[in-house]
Amino acid sequence: MAHMTLAITGRTASEIADSVRGLVERGVLSPGEPLPPVRALAAKLGVNRNTAVAAYRHLAATGLVESRGRAGTVVSRPRTVAMEGFARDTVLRDVGSGNPDAHQIPSPARALQTIASRPVLYGEPVIDPALEAWAAPWLRADLAPGEMRLTITSGAADATERLLAQSLQRDDVVALEDPCFLASIHTVRIGGYRPVAVPVDEEGMTVDGLRAAIAEGARAIVYTPRAQNPTGASLTGGRAAALRDVLRDHPYLLVIEDDHFSLLSQQPYHSVIGPDHRRFAVVRSVSKFLGPDMGVAAVASDPDTAERLALRLTPGTTWVSHLLQRLAAAQLTDPEAQAQIAAAGRHYAARNARFAELLTAHGVPTTPGDGLSMWVGLPVPAREACEQLMRRGWLARPGDEFMLDAAGPSVHVRFTVHELDDPSLSRLAADVAAAVAAVQARDATRTGPVR
């Protein structure tokens, strides 16, 4: 421990954190190895104890170290990051995947026959004209009046990563919804930024939460205007207006709006981006309605953000394939595909509403929300309920995986049920109620009778 205290250098919290990070990267500090106590480190470096505390807090926020209370602070071991998608090698019925229904995605067969054209060469425009002609008016119609530029990226996660990278440095604070979309959590942590949780309620991101994140130094915000994943919440007009009021005094705060459900959403669109906000990006991918493999997202942003983003999509390096762009444009302008997309949105809403109705009838009051999945609150810890569901043949997703600032075990489970028929939905609802009852009975047995 003494040699480690001597190895760490720095006079500010940032310098101390960078020193520890360098020791980890060079292998001098190994996973599980304890860091010096705060008092000892502060005394050796000749800094205030609060400076050492702040350095350790920065490191913990980026996941490099973790606090173990009285046992001190240790270097984190590699963590498995939860990701979306089907669980591999399971015999259980997967109702936690978060995937769209493959039967609701328009077939690309007809569109593929129309996109053959000459090859695209280095130095040519990076945006396909047909996709630009469709996407630009689609995005402009929902933005406040002002200059807007279009960029095409390889999906929403790619857009978010590039937008943050062109604007932030390691350890910068990013405000994220809590609970949060798994890809956003992963992107922020991999980028070395510090996530700050902004609670989400039934009307979306909370006003007090946004104020607190800004006070904590947030330089960017990533949020969902509707069909928030995992909660299904959508911003109301009143909430969006209140959030715009908060942001009015911070026009250069980068606001990234991930409108992932766009064409499928059954809720009106409300944005927190006001007419005078200077740094913004609205991201709409096609993955939920044309399929995750399409890898195309349209990004509308202010001119400065667009220019920075374009530099990270320079022709000859990382532009989005024009074949994918043409395929997306061909489907998005096809009346038959448009009708199927609209029908898919109604299908997801109807299946979720039916499951909410069945759960409520079984004593688990549920509101469906909007989106591919449902956020179901239970009177018992989610992980324990999911363990009971596994015994009944179901694989669900506990809410703990989506939490940034959990004060305790989550009591929510995310279900993806739109592929289930009515008998299967009924059985799942009954099994959820049985799982809750089993956990409650076990807890009662452990506690014993009250005397």
UniProtKB/TrEMBL annotation:
<comment type="similarity">
    <text>In the C-terminal section; belongs to the class-I pyridoxal-phosphate-dependent aminotransferase family.</text>
</comment>
<dbReference type="InterPro" id="IPR015421">
    <property type="entry name" value="PyrdxlP-dep_Trfase_major"/>
</dbReference>
<dbReference type="InterPro" id="IPR004839">
    <property type="entry name" value="Aminotransferase_I/II_large"/>
</dbReference>
<keyword id="KW-0805">Transcription regulation</keyword>
<dbReference type="Pfam" id="PF00155">
    <property type="entry name" value="Aminotran_1_2"/>
</dbReference>
<dbReference type="Pfam" id="PF00392">
    <property type="entry name" value="GntR"/>
</dbReference>
<dbReference type="GO" id="GO:0003700">
    <property type="term" value="F:DNA-binding transcription factor activity"/>
</dbReference>
<dbReference type="GO" id="GO:0003677">
    <property type="term" value="F:DNA binding"/>
</dbReference>
<keyword id="KW-0663">Pyridoxal phosphate</keyword>
<keyword id="KW-0238">DNA-binding</keyword>
<dbReference type="InterPro" id="IPR036388">
    <property type="entry name" value="WH-like_DNA-bd_sf"/>
</dbReference>
<dbReference type="GO" id="GO:0030170">
    <property type="term" value="F:pyridoxal phosphate binding"/>
</dbReference>
<keyword id="KW-0804">Transcription</keyword>
<feature type="domain" description="HTH gntR-type">
    <location>
        <begin position="10"/>
        <end position="78"/>
    </location>
</feature>
<dbReference type="InterPro" id="IPR015424">
    <property type="entry name" value="PyrdxlP-dep_Trfase"/>
</dbReference>
<protein>
    <submittedName>
        <fullName>Transcriptional regulator</fullName>
    </submittedName>
</protein>
<dbReference type="InterPro" id="IPR051446">
    <property type="entry name" value="HTH_trans_reg/aminotransferase"/>
</dbReference>
<dbReference type="InterPro" id="IPR036390">
    <property type="entry name" value="WH_DNA-bd_sf"/>
</dbReference>
<dbReference type="InterPro" id="IPR000524">
    <property type="entry name" value="Tscrpt_reg_HTH_GntR"/>
</dbReference>
